[in-house]
Amino acid sequence: MEPLFDFYCYDCHGLGTNEGGVTLDEFTAETIEDHDLWMRVLKNTRAHIMPPLEEAHPTIEEREQLAQWVKTELF
Length: 75
What we know:
The chain is mainly α and 75 residues long.
């Protein structure tokens, strides 16, 4: 998942930036187990809210890959 997060997410949600209070590059036991955070990630990527319209967007396959990772690895 790191390449997807790096390309699509970290400009706003990593590397010292936490837009909306969301940081995706500092995984801890607490953030990995934060189901509310990952539900927001799923909902926002599925609804095409994230990344914002003016940013590059993942392909359908990349979105599905992210969804599968969250569902199978984190939930």
